[in-house]
């Protein structure tokens, strides 16, 4: 069971390490990550590092959660069930940049996230994105 949980968590991360996403200016794209909101953790769009143009290039447009599909059946009412969080973004301008997301309990790292400081022990993902005209 632990191996299955690890596999479910690791596979989407391997996909993120692939080539940069290519989207057209004005289009939306979605990042889907394994998550379990009953733990208090959630994926959030964090302030990009200083000097990055990501804050003006991307606008987060949606944040949804879907329970994991087990054996072809959608679980209904499973308390504590994991699944996938989907973050959608709009590409505002042409260029190359990165979307930074972190898996956090937002109330525990609010100060760091406002000051563009991502603690070393924080689970953090960087998604490269090329926006074309």
From TrEMBL:
InterPro entries: Chagasin-like_sf (IPR036331), Cys_protease_inhibitor_I42 (IPR052781), Prot_inh_I42_chagasin (IPR018990). Residues 1-17 form the signal peptide. Residues 23-114 form the Proteinase inhibitor I42 chagasin domain. SUPFAM superfamilies: ICP-like (SSF141066). It holds the Pfam family Inhibitor_I42. Keywords: Protease inhibitor, Signal, Thiol protease inhibitor. It comes from the Eukaryota. This is Proteinase inhibitor I42 chagasin domain-containing protein. It comes from Paratrimastix pyriformis.
């Amino acid at each position: 069971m632990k191996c299955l949980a690890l596999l479910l968590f690791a596979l989407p991360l391997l996909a993120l390490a692939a080539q940069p996403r290519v989207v057209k200016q004005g289009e939306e794209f979605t990042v889907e990550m394994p998550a379990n909101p009953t733990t208090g953790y959630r994926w959030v769009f964090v302030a990009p590092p200083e000097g990055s143009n990501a804050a003006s290039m991307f606008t987060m447009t949606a944040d949804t959660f879907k329970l994991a599909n087990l054996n072809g059946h959608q679980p209904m009412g499973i308390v504590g069930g994991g699944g996938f969080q989907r973050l959608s973004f709009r590409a505002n301008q042409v260029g190359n940049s990165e979307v930074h997301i972190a898996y956090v309990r937002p109330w525990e790292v609010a100060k760091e996230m406002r000051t563009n400081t991502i603690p070393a022990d924080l689970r953090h993902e960087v998604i490269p994105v090329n926006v074309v005209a």
